[in-house]
Amino acid sequence: MDTIGGRWQAIKASIEAAALDAGRAPDSVSLLAVSKAHPASAMREVYMLGQRKFGENYLQEALTKQAELKDLAIEWHFIGPIQSNKTQAIAQHFDWVHSVDRVKIAERLNAARSAELPQLQVCIQVNISEENSKSGASAAEAIALAGHIRQLPRLSLRGLMAIPAPTADPAVQQAQFREVRNIYQTLLAQGHDLDTLSMGMSEDFPAAIREGATIVRVGSAIFGARIKSTTSTTE
Ligand SMILES: *Cc1c(COP(=O)(O)O)cnc(C)c1O
What is the pTM of this model? Predict the structure, then answer.
């Protein structure tokens, strides 16, 4: 079982079990395989088992792997912090971007997304943890940003993404995810047509599924521990 394939199968089974536990359809939660710091060969291995959605945090690393995997029908999701000088390439080389947290980035992605490509599917990253150090919009900022994104023709707003403060306490995990869900519900009530709550990682995805996650982003529980990359802070 302790192979990438075995762990992938186990995570798929846990996602289904958590959905059923929460009274949800097993196929209402999809798995985004977070492959940052892992080689293209590992991605190919889970692709062969049926995985199609992959999440990457670092642009250069992702572009290299996209070239290596161009024979595969992968759906590429950008989930890392976005610097404005990277928006051109991100808009052209990804299907989804989960980490939009300010107007300037949304506008630049919109301007850079070619007319021949489908709209770029985006989520607003919200920051519900107390520390303001992390990226992400506050609830009020997210609501204003959603109104702005709605005016941008090359972007399709799908929902919210969050990375709550890590904690081992499932009740605290769930309370944090509930805050994200509350913002999501405010947006729905305002008439935004959304279907995506991107929340939950290796350590907390069952709690996220209990609070309505539709995409869980799982890395180390599938691919194993990441070797600390020296490029990750500069990209
Ligand atoms: C790395 C990362 C993940 C995956 O984290 P794991 O703990 O390895 O499952 C999910 N989302 C984001 C935004 C990440 O940067």
Answer: 0.95
